[in-house]
């Protein structure tokens, strides 16, 4: 998989700036081979080449029942116009990858090449060269995710967040391990695998996935850096109702950004967050009172050495213990 993606990136085959890969790749399952090897498509009639011209009017963006739209945002207007001009002069160098639409007979769904399709329409083309692939829903997701996640030079936090989440869900559905490292997050083996492929730690993968719990206005603010990444992770632990309240209070009081420390304070008050507390955290309270700090306490618990060794290695047990302690602290604060 990594070798496939490395050659994909170096060739520029996905974004249309390079030539298609023509050598056989280390792909024991054959999933990606038909993406890059010239020759008959799995769906093409015998004797024809894999790429053929497909009417742009018959092509739809990728979507499925779980995710209404792909997580990757289109090129900016300037970049799309630049790609369109390149297509006017040179045509589409690398065919897009499509599959038959699972939603409407006679139509196609994009697996790789959303921007090339959009730029071709902008350039006034009627058709685009495409390779029609047979792909299950899970295979389609992996092609979509990997062709963007590991090929684009720059991705927004929201794009990475939803890409990692979708990839994780797909891995889980394919029968990977389900032993949890956290009560909220994901299988350990899966996050480690994604982290290794992305060059980041499994914990950073989990932080990105936490961003998918943010309300859309807050996630947009993470993309624009009005909310730092770490603050976005902290705020993601607020309930949906608390996040909606936060968005409303910010809009009503012209609050344009959230600092890292403010994000931590919001998370600390997540079980008792109200409008007045939010205003105090942002220094907007008309009462002028300082934000009361949540009560803290230390618990001294003696464990047998064997239990301590088990607790140090068992992250599920750690999460369960934290939940018990949190419940105890909340009860004592009432």
Topology diagram in text:
Elements lengths: L1 H10 L21 H4 L14 E5 L3 E2 L16 H14 L5 E5 L7 E5 L1 H9 L4 E6 L4 H13 L7 H17 L14 H11 L3 H9 L5 H8 L5 H7 L4 H13 L7 H9 L6 H7 L23 H9 L1 H19 L1
Parallel strand pairs: 2-4, 3-5
Antiparallel strand pairs: 1-5, 3-4
Helix pairs in contact: 3-4, 5-6, 6-8, 7-8, 10-12
How would you portray this structure in words?
With 334 residues, this protein is an alpha/beta fold. The chain folds into three domains: 2-151, Alpha-Beta Complex (Conserved hypothetical protein from pyrococcus furiosus pfu- 392566-001, ParB domain), CATH 3.90.1530; 158-281, no CATH class; 297-334. It is 48% helix and 7% strand. The chain contains 15 helices and five strands. The protein has helices spanning 2-11, 33-36, 77-90, 114-122, 137-149, 157-173, 188-198, 202-210, 216-223, 229-235, 240-252, 260-268, 275-281, 305-313, 315-333, and strands spanning 51-55, 59-60, 96-100, 108-112, 127-132. The protein has a five-stranded mixed β-sheet with strand order 1-5-3-4-2. A hairpin with a 7-residue loop joins strand 3 and strand 4. Helix 3 (77-90) crosses helix 4 (114-122) and helix 6 (157-173) crosses helix 8. The longest helix is centred in the last third of the chain and has 19 residues, at 315-333. It starts with a helix and ends with a helix. 33% of the residues are buried. The model is unreliable at 1-5, 11-49 and 176-188 (pLDDT under 50).
């Amino acid at each position: 998989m990594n070798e496939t993606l490395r050659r994909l990136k170096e060739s520029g085959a996905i974004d249309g700036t390079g030539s298609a890969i023509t050598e056989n790749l280390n792909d024991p399952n054959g999933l990606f081979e038909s993406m890059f090897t010239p020759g008959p498509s799995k769906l093409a009639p015998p004797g024809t080449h894999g790429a053929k011209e497909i009417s742009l009017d018959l092509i739809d963006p990728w979507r499925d029942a779980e995710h209404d739209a792909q997580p990757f945002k289109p090129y900016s207007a300037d970049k799309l116009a630049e790609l369109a001009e390149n297509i006017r002069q040179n045509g589409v160098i690398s065919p897009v990858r499509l599959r038959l639409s699972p939603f409407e007979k006679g139509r196609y769904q994009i697996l790789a090449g959303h921007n090339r399709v959009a730029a071709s329409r902008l350039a006034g083309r009627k058709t685009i060269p495409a390779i029609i692939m047979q792909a299950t829903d899970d295979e389609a997701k992996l092609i979509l995710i990997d062709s963007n996640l590991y090929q684009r030079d720059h991705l927004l936090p929201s794009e990475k967040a939803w890409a990692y989440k979708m990839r994780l869900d797909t891995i889980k559905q394919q029968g990977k391990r389900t032993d949890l490292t956290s009560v909220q997050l994901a299988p350990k083996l899966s996050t480690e695998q994604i982290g290794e492929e992305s060059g980041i730690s499994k914990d950073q993968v989990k932080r990105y996935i936490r961003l998918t719990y943010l309300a859309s206005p807050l996630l947009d603010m993470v993309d624009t850096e009005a909310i730092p990444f770490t603050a976005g992770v902290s705020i993601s632990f607020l309930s949906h109702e608390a996040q909606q309240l936060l968005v409303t209070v910010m809009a009503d009081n012209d609050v344009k950004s959230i600092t890292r420390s403010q994000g931590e304070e919001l998370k600390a008050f997540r079980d008792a967050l109200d409008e007045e507390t939010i205003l105090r955290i942002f220094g907007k309270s008309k009462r002028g009172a300082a934000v009361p700090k949540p009560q803290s306490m230390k618990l001294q618990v003696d464990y047998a050495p064997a239990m301590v060794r088990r607790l140090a290695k068992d992250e599920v047990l750690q999460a369960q213990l934290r939940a018990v302690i949190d419940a105890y602290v909340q009860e004592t604060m009432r």
